[in-house]
Amino acid sequence: MTSINSTALQGGALATTVTGNTSSGSDNSTASQINLILQQITKLTGQLKDIASSGGSAEEKQKQQELIQAQITMLQAQIAQLQHKQAEDAQQKQEQNQIKAEGVNYPSESNQIDILI
């Protein structure tokens, strides 16, 4: 199960943690992790827009914007890692399927039988 937790810190900043299963071959869990991270990015983007209309000094708003932008960048990096993992898993699965097919209806060089009539 994948979860994203946000904790409010002093000054209105957020600390975000993403936890989840890392079992190989689970495309659905990787896809769900990506979707959850995208939802978190959407929330953070909304918070970025809200900062402009919130009260506080310009310096404080700037700090909050920088923190949220850093979190968005971190989440985007996590998405890139998950997409890379997804591509590797798909490639590995494809290679395994090719190995399984060899020798059944498609004999390999060492398992080929020549029949002479």
UniProtKB/TrEMBL annotation:
Biased composition (Polar residues): 107-117
Segments of skewed composition (Low complexity): 15-29, 93-102
Disordered: annotated segments: 1-29, 84-117
Signal peptide stretch: none
Coiled-coil features, chain-numbered ranges: none
UniProt xrefs under InterPro entries: FlxA
Identification of the protein by name: FlxA protein
Organism, as annotated: Cedecea colo
